[in-house]
Design goal:
The complex is a heterodimer of chains A (67) and B (253). Chain A is 69% helix and 0% strand. With 253 residues, chain B is mainly alpha-helical. In chain B, α4 runs antiparallel to α5. Classes of the chains: A mainly alpha (67), B mainly alpha (253).
Chain lengths: 67, 253
């Protein structure tokens, strides 16, 4: 890093190829993580709501091993 | 649920992990560790790859694309091999979790395959002078990408989720033939793509200052796969519980 921060970002003239590689990789992986996480919490919330709405219905116990 | 619990307790030790309740407990316990290991490995890999590793004597700074390209390509194959194992256990032993593991893996494999192609293209332009060539390595990886897409389309194309999982499992097993083609394409055919330098027999043809960031990124990507797989598997299990509740509600009117 002798040349400082601008030289680092210039990547020896390959900035236009190096940085998009890292940026798109980060975006794709973070995006998939986020979508997976949101889907899990969304379904958990839906399940909780359904179970709260129908408390008297015969339903599967939360932990099947306890029964 | 009760029936699977008792039958899996009676049968062999490996089948224990097929018990959804036990699997969920295991997954919850593993999750913070795999997420933490993922963050650590990727942070260390990025630091070493961007700041410590030297530029290549031929490729200059563009060689840093390698630290995302090569691990992503490894993961594209690794995730597919995992899906093939899961698909085989689904078809042979009707392992209850296997179909869900294949289903939850496919988007991760697709993402890594896309990244291998995308970063490879960005690396190819300055080094080869072209974004793309229709040679054996690039074409076979593109086919892998389409197989992943086909798997995701097929598994959701059936009303009955089990039938979709079986159809997708057959597709996955047929597609396994593509894995050795990808691996050995650089040896079997003339190509612009360079041959393997890390997994070469004997010592790797790469200096340790470049090997370490590469391995750390690969490890970080592997932990990413485990972490996202856990999230998606839990979501799949919730989906099947929601489906069961819907069926029950429909039957009761």
């Amino acid at each position: 890093m002798e040349g400082g921060i601008s030289e680092f970002f210039a990547m020896g003239g390959y900035a236009a190829f190096v940085w998009p590689s890292y940026a798109v990789s980060g975006l794709v992986l973070a995006g998939l993580f986020f979508v997976s996480w949101r889907e899990l919490t969304r379904r958990q919330a839906l399940l909780d709501r359904l179970q709260a709405a129908a408390p008297h219905r015969r339903r599967k116990p939360k932990d099947p091993e306890r029964t | 649920m009760n029936r699977t619990a008792t039958s899996s307790q009676q049968s062999g030790s490996l089948h224990r992990f097929a018990n959804p309740a036990r699997f969920l407990r295991l997954a919850q316990a593993v999750f913070p560790w795999s997420a933490g290991a993922m963050a650590l490995c990727i942070a260390a890999g990025l630091y070493l790859g961007l700041f410590v590793a030297p530029p290549d004597y031929q490729q200059g700074e563009s060689v840093r694309i390698m630290y995302v390209h090569v691990p992503a390509a490894w993961m594209a194959l690794f995730v597919y091999a995992n899906m093939a194992l899961a698909s085989a256990s689904l078809l042979i032993w009707r392992h209850p979790l296997a179909g869900l593991i294949a289903k939850a893996s496919a988007p991760v494999g697709t993402a890594f395959t896309f990244l291998a192609l995308f970063t490879g293209s960005l690396w190819g332009k300055p080094m080869w002078g072209t974004w793309w060539v229709w040679d054996a390595r690039l074409t076979s990886v593109l086919i892998l990408f389409f197989i992943y897409l086909g798997h995701m389309a097929l598994i959701n194309a059936f009303e009955n989720p089990e039938r979709g999982q079986k159809a997708a499992a057959v597709l996955t097993l047929v597609g396994v033939v593509n894995l050795p083609i990808i691996k050995f394409s650089v040896d079997w055919w003339n190509t612009l793509h360079q041959p393997a330098s890390v997994t070469r027999i004997g010592t790797p043809a790469i200096h340790s200052s470049m090997l370490w960031p590469l391995l750390l990124m690969a490890l970080g990507f592997t932990f990413y796969y485990v972490t996202v797989l856990i999230l998606r598997l839990r979501a799949e299990m919730l989906a099947s519980r929601l489906r069961a509740m819907n069926r029950l509600a429909a039957e009761e009117g």
